[in-house]
Amino acid sequence: MGKKLLMKGNEALAEAAIRAGVKGYFGYPITPQSELLEYMATNLDARGGVFLQAESEVAAINMVYGASGTGTRVMTSTSSPGFSLMQEGISYMACAELPCLLVNVVRGGPGLGTIQPSQGDYFQAVKGGGHGDYKLIVLAPNSVQEMADLVYLGFDLADKYRIPTLILSDGALGQMMESVEFPEYNVEEHLVDHSSWTTIGRENGREQHYITSLHLLSEKMEEINIHLQDKYKIIQKNETRFESIQTEDADILIVAFGLSSRSSQKALELAREQGLKVGMLRPITLFPFPTDEIKHLAQIVKGILVVEMNAGQMVEDVHLSVGNNIPIDFYGRMGGMIPQPDEIVEKIKDLSKQVKI
Amino acid sequence: MNEELIIAGFGGQGVLSMGMTLAYAGMVEDKQVAWIPSYGPEMRGGTANCTVIVSDTRVSSPIISSYDTAIVLNQPSLEKFESRVKPGGTLIYESNNILNPPTRKDINIYAIPATVEANKIGNAKTMNMIILGAFLSKTPLVSVNSIMEGLKKVLPERHHNLLPVNEKALKRGMELLK
Known about the structure:
The complex is a heterodimer. Helix content of chain A is about 40%, strand content about 20%. By secondary structure, chain A is α/β, with parallel strands linked by helices. Chain A folds into two domains: about 5-200 and about 225-240, Rossmann fold (3-Layer(aba) Sandwich), CATH 3.40.50.970; about 240-355, 3-Layer(aba) Sandwich (Rossmann fold), CATH 3.40.50.920. In chain A, α12 (about 290-300) crosses α13. Chain B contains six helices and six strands. In chain B, α2 (about 75-80) links the parallel β4 (about 65-70) and β5 (about 85-95).
Protein backbone atom coordinates (compact mmCIF):
# COMPACT_ATOMS: atom_id res chain seq x y z
CA MET A 1 0.00 0.00 0.00
CA GLY A 2 1.11 3.53 -0.65
CA LYS A 3 0.82 6.72 1.30
CA LYS A 4 -2.42 7.71 3.00
CA LEU A 5 -4.17 10.61 1.26
CA LEU A 6 -7.27 12.62 2.12
CA MET A 7 -9.45 12.77 -0.98
CA LYS A 8 -12.99 13.23 -2.16
CA GLY A 9 -14.62 10.03 -3.37
CA ASN A 10 -14.87 11.39 -6.91
CA GLU A 11 -11.16 12.26 -6.95
CA ALA A 12 -10.12 8.93 -5.45
CA LEU A 13 -12.09 7.10 -8.12
CA ALA A 14 -10.46 9.14 -10.88
CA GLU A 15 -6.96 8.64 -9.47
CA ALA A 16 -7.55 4.89 -9.18
CA ALA A 17 -8.74 4.76 -12.79
CA ILE A 18 -5.54 6.42 -13.99
CA ARG A 19 -3.49 3.99 -11.89
CA ALA A 20 -5.53 1.12 -13.36
CA GLY A 21 -4.37 2.16 -16.81
CA VAL A 22 -7.39 3.95 -18.24
CA LYS A 23 -6.43 5.31 -21.65
CA GLY A 24 -9.62 7.11 -22.58
CA TYR A 25 -12.09 9.12 -20.53
CA PHE A 26 -15.15 10.56 -22.27
CA GLY A 27 -17.66 12.52 -20.24
CA TYR A 28 -19.91 15.47 -19.75
CA PRO A 29 -20.08 17.50 -16.52
CA ILE A 30 -22.94 17.03 -14.08
CA THR A 31 -23.18 17.57 -10.31
CA PRO A 32 -22.41 15.73 -8.02
CA GLN A 33 -19.94 13.91 -10.24
CA SER A 34 -18.02 16.82 -11.79
CA GLU A 35 -14.85 16.51 -9.65
CA LEU A 36 -14.24 13.19 -11.34
CA LEU A 37 -14.32 14.73 -14.80
CA GLU A 38 -12.27 17.70 -13.61
CA TYR A 39 -9.62 15.41 -12.13
CA MET A 40 -9.38 13.60 -15.46
CA ALA A 41 -9.20 16.90 -17.34
CA THR A 42 -6.28 17.98 -15.15
CA ASN A 43 -4.36 14.72 -15.00
CA LEU A 44 -5.17 12.12 -17.63
CA ASP A 45 -3.43 13.59 -20.68
CA ALA A 46 -0.22 14.19 -18.73
CA ARG A 47 -0.28 10.56 -17.57
CA GLY A 48 -0.61 8.85 -20.89
CA GLY A 49 -4.33 8.90 -21.64
CA VAL A 50 -6.86 10.96 -23.51
CA PHE A 51 -9.44 13.15 -21.80
CA LEU A 52 -12.31 14.34 -23.93
CA GLN A 53 -15.30 16.38 -22.87
CA ALA A 54 -18.09 15.31 -25.17
CA GLU A 55 -20.97 17.51 -26.30
CA SER A 56 -23.47 15.35 -24.40
CA GLU A 57 -23.78 12.10 -22.49
CA VAL A 58 -25.12 10.44 -25.63
CA ALA A 59 -21.94 11.38 -27.46
CA ALA A 60 -19.76 10.35 -24.51
CA ILE A 61 -21.11 6.79 -24.30
CA ASN A 62 -20.74 6.34 -28.06
CA MET A 63 -17.13 7.52 -27.82
CA VAL A 64 -16.64 4.89 -25.11
CA TYR A 65 -18.19 2.32 -27.48
CA GLY A 66 -15.79 3.25 -30.27
CA ALA A 67 -12.69 3.45 -28.12
CA SER A 68 -13.50 0.18 -26.35
CA GLY A 69 -13.45 -1.50 -29.76
CA THR A 70 -9.67 -1.08 -29.67
CA GLY A 71 -9.50 -3.19 -26.49
CA THR A 72 -7.97 -0.42 -24.38
CA ARG A 73 -9.27 0.53 -20.95
CA VAL A 74 -11.86 3.28 -21.32
CA MET A 75 -14.51 4.80 -19.12
CA THR A 76 -17.14 7.43 -18.58
CA SER A 77 -18.80 8.87 -15.52
CA THR A 78 -21.99 10.79 -14.94
CA SER A 79 -24.90 11.28 -12.57
CA SER A 80 -28.47 10.03 -12.83
CA PRO A 81 -30.05 12.11 -15.66
CA GLY A 82 -26.85 11.69 -17.66
CA PHE A 83 -26.88 7.95 -17.04
CA SER A 84 -30.41 7.74 -18.44
CA LEU A 85 -29.17 9.42 -21.60
CA MET A 86 -26.46 6.78 -21.96
CA GLN A 87 -28.75 3.75 -21.83
CA GLU A 88 -29.00 3.18 -25.59
CA GLY A 89 -25.22 3.08 -25.95
CA ILE A 90 -24.82 0.82 -22.93
CA SER A 91 -27.30 -1.67 -24.37
CA TYR A 92 -25.29 -1.67 -27.62
CA MET A 93 -22.08 -2.31 -25.69
CA ALA A 94 -23.65 -5.11 -23.66
CA CYS A 95 -24.69 -6.80 -26.91
CA ALA A 96 -21.36 -6.21 -28.65
CA GLU A 97 -19.62 -7.48 -25.47
CA LEU A 98 -17.36 -4.49 -25.07
CA PRO A 99 -15.54 -3.96 -21.79
CA CYS A 100 -15.61 -0.55 -20.15
CA LEU A 101 -16.04 1.10 -16.77
CA LEU A 102 -19.17 3.17 -16.16
CA VAL A 103 -19.69 5.33 -13.09
CA ASN A 104 -23.02 6.68 -11.89
CA VAL A 105 -22.71 9.07 -8.95
CA VAL A 106 -26.43 8.94 -8.23
CA ARG A 107 -28.50 11.99 -7.30
CA GLY A 108 -32.12 12.29 -6.24
CA GLY A 109 -34.77 11.84 -8.92
CA PRO A 110 -36.96 11.29 -10.77
CA GLY A 111 -36.48 13.95 -13.40
CA LEU A 112 -33.72 16.48 -13.05
CA GLY A 113 -34.40 16.08 -9.34
CA THR A 114 -31.85 17.28 -6.81
CA ILE A 115 -28.08 17.19 -6.62
CA GLN A 116 -28.17 15.38 -3.28
CA PRO A 117 -27.32 11.67 -2.83
CA SER A 118 -29.77 8.90 -3.68
CA GLN A 119 -29.96 5.21 -4.52
CA GLY A 120 -32.98 5.67 -6.75
CA ASP A 121 -31.16 4.25 -9.79
CA TYR A 122 -30.84 0.72 -8.33
CA PHE A 123 -33.38 -0.85 -10.68
CA GLN A 124 -31.86 0.89 -13.68
CA ALA A 125 -28.41 -0.37 -12.65
CA VAL A 126 -29.14 -4.01 -11.88
CA LYS A 127 -32.08 -4.88 -14.12
CA GLY A 128 -30.54 -3.81 -17.40
CA GLY A 129 -31.43 -0.15 -17.72
CA GLY A 130 -31.64 0.10 -21.47
CA HIS A 131 -33.58 -2.06 -23.90
CA GLY A 132 -33.20 -5.79 -24.34
CA ASP A 133 -32.08 -8.63 -22.10
CA TYR A 134 -28.75 -7.67 -20.62
CA LYS A 135 -26.95 -7.15 -17.34
CA LEU A 136 -24.04 -5.07 -16.18
CA ILE A 137 -21.71 -6.09 -13.38
CA VAL A 138 -22.66 -3.57 -10.70
CA LEU A 139 -20.29 -2.64 -7.87
CA ALA A 140 -21.42 -0.58 -4.88
CA PRO A 141 -18.69 1.18 -2.85
CA ASN A 142 -19.51 2.46 0.64
CA SER A 143 -16.36 4.47 1.42
CA VAL A 144 -13.80 6.64 -0.31
CA GLN A 145 -11.37 3.73 -0.05
CA GLU A 146 -13.77 1.49 -1.96
CA MET A 147 -14.43 4.24 -4.50
CA ALA A 148 -10.79 3.55 -5.40
CA ASP A 149 -10.57 -0.21 -4.80
CA LEU A 150 -13.60 -1.13 -6.88
CA VAL A 151 -12.18 0.69 -9.90
CA TYR A 152 -9.39 -1.88 -10.24
CA LEU A 153 -11.85 -4.71 -9.74
CA GLY A 154 -14.26 -3.08 -12.19
CA PHE A 155 -11.71 -2.87 -14.99
CA ASP A 156 -10.48 -6.41 -14.31
CA LEU A 157 -13.99 -7.89 -14.41
CA ALA A 158 -14.92 -5.86 -17.48
CA ASP A 159 -11.89 -7.24 -19.32
CA LYS A 160 -12.32 -10.79 -18.04
CA TYR A 161 -15.97 -11.11 -19.11
CA ARG A 162 -16.09 -8.53 -21.92
CA ILE A 163 -18.90 -6.67 -20.19
CA PRO A 164 -19.58 -3.05 -19.22
CA THR A 165 -19.07 -2.77 -15.47
CA LEU A 166 -20.85 -0.10 -13.46
CA ILE A 167 -19.79 1.54 -10.21
CA LEU A 168 -23.02 2.65 -8.56
CA SER A 169 -22.08 5.40 -6.14
CA ASP A 170 -23.97 8.43 -4.85
CA GLY A 171 -23.51 12.14 -4.35
CA ALA A 172 -22.36 11.89 -0.75
CA LEU A 173 -19.72 9.23 -1.44
CA GLY A 174 -18.54 11.39 -4.34
CA GLN A 175 -18.32 14.58 -2.32
CA MET A 176 -17.06 13.38 1.05
CA MET A 177 -13.42 13.08 2.04
CA GLU A 178 -11.87 10.14 3.82
CA SER A 179 -8.37 8.78 3.87
CA VAL A 180 -7.48 6.49 1.01
CA GLU A 181 -4.47 4.32 0.17
CA PHE A 182 -3.93 3.19 -3.38
CA PRO A 183 -2.88 -0.44 -3.61
CA GLU A 184 0.08 -1.70 -5.61
CA TYR A 185 -1.29 -2.50 -9.04
CA ASN A 186 0.80 -3.45 -12.03
CA VAL A 187 -1.36 -2.63 -15.05
CA GLU A 188 0.54 -4.88 -17.46
CA GLU A 189 -0.13 -7.93 -15.29
CA HIS A 190 -3.87 -7.26 -15.38
CA LEU A 191 -4.42 -6.50 -19.05
CA VAL A 192 -6.21 -9.20 -21.01
CA ASP A 193 -5.30 -10.12 -24.57
CA HIS A 194 -8.19 -8.81 -26.64
CA SER A 195 -6.49 -9.24 -30.02
CA SER A 196 -9.02 -11.87 -31.15
CA TRP A 197 -11.77 -9.29 -31.56
CA THR A 198 -10.41 -5.74 -31.52
CA THR A 199 -10.79 -3.46 -34.53
CA ILE A 200 -7.39 -1.84 -34.74
CA GLY A 201 -6.53 -2.40 -38.38
CA ARG A 202 -6.06 -5.66 -40.24
CA GLU A 203 -2.55 -7.02 -40.52
CA ASN A 204 -1.16 -9.93 -42.54
CA GLY A 205 -4.53 -10.77 -44.05
CA ARG A 206 -6.06 -12.00 -40.79
CA GLU A 207 -9.82 -12.49 -40.82
CA GLN A 208 -11.96 -9.41 -40.45
CA HIS A 209 -13.12 -8.35 -36.98
CA TYR A 210 -16.58 -6.95 -36.89
CA ILE A 211 -18.10 -5.29 -33.81
CA THR A 212 -21.85 -4.73 -33.99
CA SER A 213 -25.05 -5.05 -32.02
CA LEU A 214 -27.24 -5.38 -35.13
CA HIS A 215 -28.22 -8.93 -36.06
CA LEU A 216 -31.25 -8.97 -38.33
CA LEU A 217 -31.70 -12.75 -38.32
CA SER A 218 -33.67 -13.62 -35.21
CA GLU A 219 -32.03 -17.07 -35.03
CA LYS A 220 -28.66 -15.35 -34.75
CA MET A 221 -30.02 -12.84 -32.26
CA GLU A 222 -31.36 -15.62 -30.06
CA GLU A 223 -28.00 -17.35 -30.18
CA ILE A 224 -26.34 -14.17 -28.95
CA ASN A 225 -28.92 -13.83 -26.20
CA ILE A 226 -28.29 -17.39 -25.04
CA HIS A 227 -24.57 -16.71 -24.99
CA LEU A 228 -25.08 -13.55 -22.92
CA GLN A 229 -27.35 -15.34 -20.45
CA ASP A 230 -24.78 -18.12 -20.05
CA LYS A 231 -22.14 -15.51 -19.35
CA TYR A 232 -24.32 -13.84 -16.71
CA LYS A 233 -24.81 -17.24 -15.03
CA ILE A 234 -21.05 -17.73 -14.83
CA ILE A 235 -20.66 -14.24 -13.37
CA GLN A 236 -23.38 -15.01 -10.84
CA LYS A 237 -21.56 -18.17 -9.83
CA ASN A 238 -18.07 -16.67 -9.56
CA GLU A 239 -18.17 -12.98 -8.81
CA THR A 240 -20.61 -12.38 -5.94
CA ARG A 241 -19.08 -10.19 -3.27
CA PHE A 242 -20.49 -9.00 0.06
CA GLU A 243 -19.50 -8.02 3.58
CA SER A 244 -21.03 -9.65 6.67
CA ILE A 245 -20.97 -7.65 9.88
CA GLN A 246 -21.80 -9.23 13.22
CA THR A 247 -24.21 -11.71 11.67
CA GLU A 248 -23.07 -14.65 13.85
CA ASP A 249 -25.47 -14.00 16.72
CA ALA A 250 -27.93 -11.64 15.02
CA ASP A 251 -31.70 -11.68 15.57
CA ILE A 252 -32.28 -8.82 13.17
CA LEU A 253 -30.45 -8.60 9.86
CA ILE A 254 -30.02 -5.28 8.09
CA VAL A 255 -29.43 -5.48 4.36
CA ALA A 256 -28.03 -2.24 2.95
CA PHE A 257 -25.53 -1.17 0.29
CA GLY A 258 -23.46 1.94 -0.41
CA LEU A 259 -23.97 5.01 1.75
CA SER A 260 -27.06 3.65 3.50
CA SER A 261 -24.90 0.78 4.78
CA ARG A 262 -22.81 3.39 6.61
CA SER A 263 -25.87 4.89 8.36
CA SER A 264 -26.99 1.34 9.04
CA GLN A 265 -23.65 0.36 10.53
CA LYS A 266 -23.96 3.23 12.99
CA ALA A 267 -27.53 2.15 13.75
CA LEU A 268 -26.26 -1.39 14.31
CA GLU A 269 -23.75 -0.11 16.88
CA LEU A 270 -26.39 2.03 18.64
CA ALA A 271 -28.87 -0.86 18.73
CA ARG A 272 -26.26 -3.27 20.10
CA GLU A 273 -25.54 -0.75 22.90
CA GLN A 274 -29.22 -1.15 23.77
CA GLY A 275 -28.91 -4.92 23.82
CA LEU A 276 -30.46 -5.69 20.45
CA LYS A 277 -28.59 -8.29 18.44
CA VAL A 278 -28.31 -6.74 15.01
CA GLY A 279 -26.13 -7.84 12.10
CA MET A 280 -25.70 -6.55 8.60
CA LEU A 281 -25.21 -8.02 5.17
CA ARG A 282 -23.80 -5.51 2.71
CA PRO A 283 -23.86 -6.48 -0.95
CA ILE A 284 -20.72 -5.18 -2.69
CA THR A 285 -21.85 -6.60 -6.02
CA LEU A 286 -25.48 -5.66 -6.74
CA PHE A 287 -25.33 -7.78 -9.83
CA PRO A 288 -24.53 -10.52 -9.11
CA PHE A 289 -26.70 -10.21 -6.00
CA PRO A 290 -25.68 -12.22 -2.90
CA THR A 291 -28.90 -14.25 -3.02
CA ASP A 292 -27.47 -17.43 -1.49
CA GLU A 293 -25.91 -15.63 1.48
CA ILE A 294 -29.13 -13.78 2.27
CA LYS A 295 -31.12 -16.99 1.93
CA HIS A 296 -28.69 -18.65 4.34
CA LEU A 297 -28.86 -15.83 6.89
CA ALA A 298 -32.66 -15.76 6.69
CA GLN A 299 -32.65 -19.22 8.30
CA ILE A 300 -30.75 -17.85 11.30
CA VAL A 301 -32.29 -14.42 11.98
CA LYS A 302 -35.86 -13.60 12.99
CA GLY A 303 -36.44 -10.54 10.82
CA ILE A 304 -34.82 -8.54 8.03
CA LEU A 305 -34.71 -4.77 7.66
CA VAL A 306 -33.71 -3.37 4.27
CA VAL A 307 -32.46 0.23 4.32
CA GLU A 308 -32.14 2.23 1.10
CA MET A 309 -32.13 5.79 -0.19
CA ASN A 310 -35.14 5.15 -2.42
CA ALA A 311 -38.75 3.97 -2.26
CA GLY A 312 -37.77 0.31 -1.94
CA GLN A 313 -35.87 -1.27 -4.82
CA MET A 314 -33.23 -3.70 -3.54
CA VAL A 315 -35.85 -4.91 -1.05
CA GLU A 316 -37.50 -6.68 -4.02
CA ASP A 317 -34.33 -8.69 -4.60
CA VAL A 318 -34.24 -9.56 -0.90
CA HIS A 319 -37.84 -10.80 -1.19
CA LEU A 320 -36.88 -12.86 -4.24
CA SER A 321 -33.99 -14.37 -2.27
CA VAL A 322 -35.88 -15.17 0.91
CA GLY A 323 -39.51 -15.65 -0.13
CA ASN A 324 -42.07 -15.20 2.63
CA ASN A 325 -40.29 -17.22 5.28
CA ILE A 326 -39.57 -14.36 7.67
CA PRO A 327 -40.78 -10.75 8.05
CA ILE A 328 -38.99 -8.27 5.77
CA ASP A 329 -39.34 -4.62 6.70
CA PHE A 330 -38.14 -1.62 4.72
CA TYR A 331 -36.94 1.84 5.62
CA GLY A 332 -36.10 4.38 2.95
CA ARG A 333 -35.66 8.09 2.39
CA MET A 334 -36.07 9.61 -1.06
CA GLY A 335 -35.23 12.57 -3.22
CA GLY A 336 -31.78 13.26 -1.80
CA MET A 337 -32.53 12.63 1.88
CA ILE A 338 -30.31 10.22 3.80
CA PRO A 339 -31.62 7.71 6.38
CA GLN A 340 -30.33 8.85 9.77
CA PRO A 341 -28.93 6.26 12.19
CA ASP A 342 -31.49 7.07 14.92
CA GLU A 343 -34.36 6.65 12.45
CA ILE A 344 -33.01 3.22 11.54
CA VAL A 345 -32.70 2.28 15.22
CA GLU A 346 -36.42 3.05 15.64
CA LYS A 347 -37.23 0.72 12.73
CA ILE A 348 -35.05 -1.98 14.30
CA LYS A 349 -36.99 -1.65 17.55
CA ASP A 350 -40.34 -1.82 15.74
CA LEU A 351 -39.27 -4.96 13.89
CA SER A 352 -37.92 -6.51 17.10
CA LYS A 353 -41.34 -6.06 18.73
CA GLN A 354 -43.08 -7.45 15.68
CA VAL A 355 -41.00 -10.64 15.71
CA LYS A 356 -41.17 -10.84 19.53
CA ILE A 357 -37.53 -10.51 20.52
CA MET B 1 -11.60 8.67 21.18
CA ASN B 2 -14.35 9.43 18.71
CA GLU B 3 -15.30 13.07 18.10
CA GLU B 4 -18.23 13.89 15.86
CA LEU B 5 -18.69 17.56 15.06
CA ILE B 6 -20.65 19.86 12.83
CA ILE B 7 -19.27 23.17 11.60
CA ALA B 8 -21.86 25.53 10.16
CA GLY B 9 -22.14 29.10 8.93
CA PHE B 10 -22.31 31.22 5.80
CA GLY B 11 -20.42 30.28 2.65
CA GLY B 12 -17.20 32.31 2.61
CA GLN B 13 -16.64 32.16 6.39
CA GLY B 14 -14.19 29.31 6.00
CA VAL B 15 -16.55 26.64 7.29
CA LEU B 16 -15.57 23.90 4.87
CA SER B 17 -11.86 24.67 4.99
CA MET B 18 -11.87 24.66 8.79
CA GLY B 19 -13.38 21.18 8.74
CA MET B 20 -11.01 20.00 6.05
CA THR B 21 -7.99 21.28 7.99
CA LEU B 22 -9.14 19.38 11.05
CA ALA B 23 -9.66 16.22 9.01
CA TYR B 24 -6.17 16.49 7.49
CA ALA B 25 -4.69 17.06 10.95
CA GLY B 26 -6.43 13.93 12.20
CA MET B 27 -5.02 11.92 9.32
CA VAL B 28 -1.52 13.29 10.00
CA GLU B 29 -1.88 11.79 13.47
CA ASP B 30 -2.94 8.46 11.98
CA LYS B 31 -6.53 8.73 13.13
CA GLN B 32 -9.56 7.67 11.10
CA VAL B 33 -11.29 10.70 9.63
CA ALA B 34 -14.30 11.65 7.55
CA TRP B 35 -15.32 15.04 6.16
CA ILE B 36 -18.66 15.45 4.49
CA PRO B 37 -20.00 18.77 3.24
CA SER B 38 -23.62 19.68 2.82
CA TYR B 39 -23.11 20.64 -0.77
CA GLY B 40 -25.80 22.58 -2.53
CA PRO B 41 -26.35 25.02 -5.36
CA GLU B 42 -25.53 27.88 -2.98
CA MET B 43 -22.06 29.43 -2.98
CA ARG B 44 -20.85 32.56 -1.20
CA GLY B 45 -23.46 33.97 1.16
CA GLY B 46 -25.59 30.82 1.38
CA THR B 47 -25.47 28.46 4.32
CA ALA B 48 -22.70 25.90 4.40
CA ASN B 49 -21.86 23.14 6.82
CA CYS B 50 -19.70 20.10 7.11
CA THR B 51 -19.53 17.12 9.41
CA VAL B 52 -16.10 16.06 10.61
CA ILE B 53 -15.38 12.83 12.43
CA VAL B 54 -12.01 12.08 13.99
CA SER B 55 -11.73 8.68 15.60
CA ASP B 56 -9.29 6.08 16.88
CA THR B 57 -11.38 3.37 15.27
CA ARG B 58 -13.06 2.92 11.91
CA VAL B 59 -15.68 5.60 11.24
CA SER B 60 -18.93 3.71 10.89
CA SER B 61 -21.07 6.46 9.43
CA PRO B 62 -20.30 9.93 8.12
CA ILE B 63 -24.05 10.53 8.40
CA ILE B 64 -24.92 11.24 12.02
CA SER B 65 -27.99 12.46 13.84
CA SER B 66 -26.37 14.22 16.82
CA TYR B 67 -23.00 15.74 17.53
CA ASP B 68 -20.41 15.89 20.32
CA THR B 69 -19.60 19.43 19.25
CA ALA B 70 -21.30 22.07 17.14
CA ILE B 71 -19.33 25.06 15.90
CA VAL B 72 -21.78 27.65 14.57
CA LEU B 73 -20.89 30.89 12.88
CA ASN B 74 -24.30 32.40 12.13
CA GLN B 75 -27.84 32.59 13.47
CA PRO B 76 -29.55 30.15 11.05
CA SER B 77 -26.92 27.52 11.86
CA LEU B 78 -27.41 27.97 15.59
CA GLU B 79 -31.14 27.51 15.19
CA LYS B 80 -30.61 24.40 13.10
CA PHE B 81 -27.96 22.65 15.18
CA GLU B 82 -28.34 23.69 18.85
CA SER B 83 -30.89 20.95 19.45
CA ARG B 84 -28.66 18.33 17.82
CA VAL B 85 -25.76 18.58 20.28
CA LYS B 86 -25.61 15.51 22.52
CA PRO B 87 -26.39 16.20 26.21
CA GLY B 88 -23.08 17.04 27.87
CA GLY B 89 -21.65 18.08 24.51
CA THR B 90 -20.13 21.36 23.43
CA LEU B 91 -21.46 24.33 21.46
CA ILE B 92 -19.04 27.02 20.34
CA TYR B 93 -20.49 30.06 18.58
CA GLU B 94 -19.19 33.21 16.95
CA SER B 95 -20.69 35.90 19.15
CA ASN B 96 -20.27 38.83 16.74
CA ASN B 97 -22.55 37.14 14.22
CA ILE B 98 -25.14 35.68 16.58
CA LEU B 99 -27.60 38.03 18.27
CA ASN B 100 -29.86 35.48 19.99
CA PRO B 101 -27.51 33.24 21.98
CA PRO B 102 -28.15 29.52 22.62
CA THR B 103 -30.35 28.63 25.59
CA ARG B 104 -29.71 24.97 26.42
CA LYS B 105 -28.60 24.20 29.95
CA ASP B 106 -27.37 20.62 29.45
CA ILE B 107 -24.42 21.39 27.17
CA ASN B 108 -21.23 23.44 27.49
CA ILE B 109 -21.61 26.72 25.62
CA TYR B 110 -18.76 29.07 24.69
CA ALA B 111 -19.10 32.44 22.97
CA ILE B 112 -16.07 33.52 20.94
CA PRO B 113 -15.89 37.04 19.47
CA ALA B 114 -13.75 35.67 16.67
CA THR B 115 -14.51 38.34 14.07
CA VAL B 116 -13.28 41.11 16.37
CA GLU B 117 -10.22 39.06 17.33
CA ALA B 118 -9.40 38.32 13.70
CA ASN B 119 -9.54 42.01 12.87
CA LYS B 120 -7.18 42.70 15.79
CA ILE B 121 -4.73 40.24 14.27
CA GLY B 122 -5.10 42.11 11.01
CA ASN B 123 -6.71 39.47 8.79
CA ALA B 124 -10.48 39.04 8.99
CA LYS B 125 -10.30 35.75 7.12
CA THR B 126 -8.53 34.06 10.04
CA MET B 127 -11.81 34.11 11.97
CA ASN B 128 -12.23 30.39 11.33
CA MET B 129 -8.79 29.60 12.79
CA ILE B 130 -9.60 31.55 15.97
CA ILE B 131 -12.71 29.46 16.41
CA LEU B 132 -10.79 26.28 15.64
CA GLY B 133 -8.18 27.25 18.25
CA ALA B 134 -10.90 27.83 20.83
CA PHE B 135 -12.37 24.41 20.06
CA LEU B 136 -8.99 22.69 20.35
CA SER B 137 -8.26 24.22 23.73
CA LYS B 138 -11.46 22.58 25.08
CA THR B 139 -11.16 19.40 23.01
CA PRO B 140 -7.48 18.72 22.27
CA LEU B 141 -8.15 16.35 19.39
CA VAL B 142 -4.96 17.11 17.47
CA SER B 143 -1.82 19.19 17.98
CA VAL B 144 -1.15 22.68 16.62
CA ASN B 145 1.60 21.18 14.46
CA SER B 146 -0.83 18.78 12.84
CA ILE B 147 -3.29 21.59 12.19
CA MET B 148 -0.54 23.54 10.47
CA GLU B 149 0.33 20.45 8.42
CA GLY B 150 -3.32 20.24 7.45
CA LEU B 151 -3.50 23.90 6.59
CA LYS B 152 -0.59 23.49 4.19
CA LYS B 153 -2.73 21.03 2.26
CA VAL B 154 -5.92 23.07 2.39
CA LEU B 155 -4.44 26.48 1.52
CA PRO B 156 -3.35 26.71 -2.11
CA GLU B 157 0.42 27.17 -2.35
CA ARG B 158 0.10 30.74 -3.55
CA HIS B 159 -1.42 31.57 -0.15
CA HIS B 160 1.25 29.86 1.95
CA ASN B 161 2.56 33.28 2.96
CA LEU B 162 -0.58 33.39 5.12
CA LEU B 163 0.42 30.36 7.20
CA PRO B 164 2.05 32.43 10.00
CA VAL B 165 -0.98 34.69 10.48
CA ASN B 166 -3.20 31.62 10.59
CA GLU B 167 -0.99 30.04 13.23
CA LYS B 168 -1.18 33.24 15.22
CA ALA B 169 -4.98 33.17 14.97
CA LEU B 170 -5.10 29.52 16.01
CA LYS B 171 -3.04 30.25 19.12
CA ARG B 172 -5.07 33.36 19.91
CA GLY B 173 -8.21 31.22 19.80
CA MET B 174 -6.64 28.71 22.18
CA GLU B 175 -5.83 31.49 24.65
CA LEU B 176 -9.41 32.74 24.57
CA LEU B 177 -10.71 29.51 26.08
CA LYS B 178 -7.81 28.64 28.34
